[in-house]
Design a protein that fits this description.
Blueprint (H helix, E strand, L loop, with lengths): L3 E6 L7 H12 L4 E4 L10 H15 L3 E4 L13 H7 L8 E5 L2 E5 L5 E2 L2 E2 L8 H15 L3 E5 L31 H8 L4 E4 L5 E6 L2 E6 L17 E5 L3 E8 L2 E8 L4 E8 L6
Parallel strand pairs: 1-2, 2-3, 5-8, 8-9, 9-11
Antiparallel strand pairs: 1-13, 4-5, 6-7, 10-11, 10-12, 13-14, 14-15
């Protein structure tokens, strides 16, 4: 099976020198694929910001395949993402999509579904995207693919930040008995390999029942003002501008988080597919 190099980062909306540094580090890794985890701009109605976004990403786009998912700053108003769709839309009308590369399936979610005027990425089992996600994870299992799922909103975060994400996505770790959210339940049942998100402007590596959940939302923005960005499942949580790098080769997954100066600060290697139970 051919090797695959993937870079992932989110929340580049400040479009500043740090963003440029992150993109330069990404290019130096010579990836085959890049996934931007939402919030490409700060104000979706400002065309100049979309032009700036395209200019920043152009060198990377010339070097590798690039996909992006929508974040809360990328929508002009509830339910409308005209500028995002123009620049990063999928081949069909839906803002979520999936594709396979080198024996791996990448599932890109839209966690920005709206209910009236409030962000509410609903993943209850009666929603179309939940049903679609289950089907995509089943396809990955049938074809022996490792499934990497990406959404703008994290599953695990500090309780101080719960207000910003739907309870159908995030897990409430303040309860005495922690239960998976509907999204996490789907990922565990479908044997997803990893979940990547942005939105929270820091780096967090959490694990729940063997599933790594990576928050990579610190490409440019100020770090959140919280007393503690961790949650009970955090293995590492740091306020550091960064990107993530996946190397998928020879049946192994090698993960590295690198800061804007290309210094690795979190790295590990595991089997690409889980061992038979």
């Amino acid at each position: 099976m051919p090797s695959l190099s993937v870079v992932l980062f989110g929340d580049m909306q400040q479009q500043n020198e740090i963003t440029q540094n992150i993109i330069q580090v990404a290019r130096s890794l010579q990836p085959d694929l890049c996934i931007v985890l939402g919030d490409l701009v700060n104000n979706a109605t400002d065309l100049a910001q979309w032009e700036r976004c395209n200019k920043l990403l152009a060198p990377l786009l010339a070097q590798c395949e690039l996909h992006a998912i929508p974040g809360n700053h990328d929508y002009e108003q509830p339910g409308i993402a005209n500028h995002f769709a123009k620049h990063f839309g999928t081949p069909h009308a839906l803002p979520y999509t999936a594709f396979s590369r080198c024996g791996n399936r990448f599932i890109l979610l839209d966690t920005m579904l709206y209910d009236q005027t409030m962000e509410r990425g609903l993943f209850t089992d009666d929603t179309p995207q939940y049903t679609w996600l289950e089907a995509e994870l089943a396809k990955a299992q049938e074809q022996g693919e490792a499934a990497f799922v990406c959404g703008h909103h994290p599953i695990f975060m500090s309780p101080e930040l719960y207000f910003s994400t739907s309870p159908s996505i995030r897990v409430d770790t303040t309860r005495a008995a922690v239960e998976p959210s509907p999204l996490l339940h789907a990922l565990l049942a479908g044997k997803a390999r990893m979940y990547f998100s942005g939105h929270i402007h820091l780096y967090d590596h959490s694990r729940f029942k063997g599933l790594p959940c990576i928050t990579s939302g610190a490409t440019s923005y100020d770090f959140p003002e919280v007393s503690d960005g961790r949650n009970p499942y955090s293995e590492l949580c740091v306020k550091k501008h960064h990107l993530c790098h996946l190397e998928l080769a020879d049946g192994k997954l090698t993960f590295t988080a690198l800061d804007q100066f290309a210094t690795a600060f979190d790295t590990w290697q595991e089997p690409l597919l889980p061992l038979p139970s």
